[in-house]
Amino acid sequence: MDGESNSTFPSSAASTSIEVFEQRSPLLVERRELARESAGAGRRRGGYAERISVRMRPETGRWFRLVVALERMTVAPYGLEGGLEGTRSQIERWRGGVTMDTAERVIEVNDSAESVSVTTAGGGGYGAGTS
Asked: Which residues lie below 8 Å from residue 39, measured CB to CB, with a gap of 6+?
């Protein structure tokens, strides 16, 4: 069996539907998916990371502050017994067609043309070999 995949957003309500989240906030969830390229290879592959992208809904006319509490942004999750490491956590901002990686932990967005994508770390693999 491979590693457990991630499912953490929103952190206090991971089982809340996207529709309810969008109804109660000024955000539009553009995507929420497992990042298939994130798991470390091994006899048992590590778990997949979660990727979520949000933007402000244009009709709200408001701004939002996203506070990101991610681990493993600098050092990737290690593999064990010959397994390969998973991918590091990553935060990206899209502004005016330009993608920027950022290490900011507090991100303010005041334009509906800007979006933020947060990807958690993928799990390290276990054991030599491929999965």
From this structure: 2, 3, 45, 46, 47, 48, 49, 86, 122, 123, 125, 131
